[in-house]
């Protein structure tokens, strides 16, 4: 065989050379081939073949990889860039081409001829290609580093044959699929790094096979399983373990397991679904970094983590459910501590040891802020936001000497702002917003050369803005302008003029002094700030003209609710909507072609600022209402006909449907679906059905108002009663179950102007999926938290939960008792299998406490059999909690509960957007509230990614008709879901939470009939925001300040700003977190 191979190479090289001294590869790069190449060493030929896959724009490899640069005696070409040779000079031992800007599709099989290769390092390039199984035959390989490239496909199982491998780094590529289950031969492996790929597997099974590894990094993948397996073979040697950003869903290490780690230095398990309590860590004397943020851990924090027995440098326990108190922190090594977003309580720690950074935000700490005086002077970053801390900040120069960032947002601090904050040489960020601070603003804050971000908004500060007087000369003698980039003093009681010295803040990008008592003229010196992007002077007493020459970079500009006059500067025309100037400023002369208050519903040049004009909305509503009424009558008639024929015997269908072998279920729960080889007709997927549940959570609008079509029933059941599985079923002839002819609304309010929920009754029946063979379809799991077969799913009892534009939603109970929601997608809605699979995997990667995760999908042989599966969540939709009719099962939501729902939804949206997934269909029916705490979870997200363009367009059309569609979607030629459109829909939901009015309601007022967003906007502009609020929420007896409701209203209005002014969801989330209750 070796002779044949050599003969092949000889003939191949002769053919390429054609008798000449040079040829070119497919990349047009010259490859030196001598006429006598058949006699050359095999290793050079292997390298030249490998070279053909390399694109080298800088010539760092190509220019040296030719025969002119090889040894005259053949063997190893030691002069080639990146090539290392053995001591004899005959064999290639290393190929190191790291960070050279190379690319190309590499063929690894060309390297199999390098019999002595020990080091292959291609890190930090843009190579692509697959790893071939033949790589396992390179038994001499000790160091394999392919990190930071674009290699793809599965990891071949034969990698287990690399007996001598010490170092394996495949990180930051596009590898996917299950990681090889056998790694027991890699006994010498010290470094195992595959982070940032799409690999999956049971981490417990993998750990059992790793024996001498010192570093393990599986982060940013799809690994699953728990940590309770056998780790004894790994624990003796491992120093670094990073399993963050995976799908781990088991318990944390047990006390017995954690004691086995004798040399562990770094343990990162963040962003998983790990639950349980933390054990004692006293037996790990080497632990330096512990990160378990964003999991489901609970219980007290082990006190030894704050003591000196463990040399921790970094501790991150954020985003869990830890409780209890933190009396003190005495560690002399701990430098970074993050305990944010837990349920910790009690007083702030009395001491912080040697910490440099501490984040205790979003807990329930109480007590006096003066305890900071005991914390020492080494702290650089402090965040105590969203607690219940009171008292006055200490005015100590020593205290703030090393601080870089101080954030104590949304507490109840009193007293003044310490002047010593401005004297710090390092302090860059000060955010004391949403407290009860009083007094004047220290002038030292405006002379600091370090401060870049100052936020004192939402306090009770008085006096003037201290740019003038003695501080003016101070400013003028500074060697350069102050470093301030963001200044927010809004929502205080500041008075006097806006000093002209504001123009000296040359680096300023944001200036917000809205809702104060400032007066005088707007200083023309603002035009000196070239980089200004956000300017809000609204809600003051400014008079005179608006200065010209303001920054061309301005993106947000608001001077409404002042006393300005004169013409609008030419350079501001066509840049901002009327709402930037109105209401207020009655003497301000606006161009006639600018949108005015009377045209807030959409001007031709501000198409993204408002929706269609009210008249068009009313016409569309009337047409939709009539159409919906006709549809209801038709459905009821068809339903009656089905019931009538059901009593006549047979299968209950006309001759045209005789092949539908529908089975009667009586009072037993129907199976989810059954396969029948003889059946050819699929079950109907677009007809209407009602369940025998107490209520189907669908909103029925007033016939005179905007409707959610009856076929768009909310996708959740409101009771645990059994439901039907198919709309066209027959009923047994029993006197206890007389036929009904339609729906009846909640007692006392049929077809009222506010949303109600329909009730109807029907007997359960068997649901049949018609496939030519029982196991013809394929069931794909998106993680391995549950495992079952298509056959098990086919016999699962099922009940209807509801219908939407996507299809029908069922609840299915597996043999194990595990409950799933199964969405049967409507015919013609989804993409082809390859695209569907790719997008389903993307959506299925989402794991977050505020998002309902997909678990699997089923792809049947017929177009009608496209199912997606998720965990069943016990709870009801936000729509039900807001609009449930009488008799009610739920108490009205308090303001505190409504705010919590808003924060939960915003947090979930942040996560989706961070994962590059717009929701695309956000509405109250797709927000589920579960548990006594009413934890909100988002469902039905990003399903547009599974749809055809026509299906996506239909979803957006239905979404817009319900009142949640952003204006830019209606004006786009090819609308697509977007992050900003999600923010708009979220803003509408915030308005529904505040008003308990539906997005589709038409509200009559002094300005005629308007929809919800226009009504809320108009009330807010006219200072009548209180009139919008739900009276039952106000009258609930809860101690809620008017300011809190106004703040939430303000956030909702920001969400529905024009798309170019609309903030992202991260900004909205942070503002919601700062709303105090």
From TrEMBL:
Cellular location(s): Membrane
Sequence ranges assigned to domain Protein kinase in this UniProt record: 795-1077
Primary location class: membrane
Stretches that traverse the bilayer: 619-640
GO cellular component, as recorded: membrane
Compositionally biased tracts (Basic and acidic residues): 723-734
PROSITE patterns per the UniProt record, alphabetical: PROTEIN_KINASE_DOM (PS50011)
Signal peptide residues on this chain, from the entry's feature table: 1-21
GO MF, one example: protein kinase activity
Annotated region described as Disordered, given as residue ranges: 714-755
UniProt entry keywords in alphabetical sequence: ATP-binding, Leucine-rich repeat, Membrane, Nucleotide-binding, Phosphoprotein, Receptor, Repeat, Signal, Transmembrane, Transmembrane helix
Biased composition (Low complexity): 741-755
GO BP: any one term: plant organ development
Membrane-related topology note: Single-pass membrane protein
Domain of life, per lineage: Eukaryota
InterPro entries named in the record: Inactive_SerThr-Kinase_ABA, Kinase-like_dom_sf, Leu-rich_rpt, LRR_dom_sf, LRR_N_plant-typ, Prot_kinase_dom
Pfam families noted in UniProt: LRR_1, LRR_8, LRRNT_2, Pkinase
UniProt cross-references to PANTHER family, sorted A to Z: OS07G0626500 PROTEIN
Name this protein carries in UniProt: Protein kinase domain-containing protein
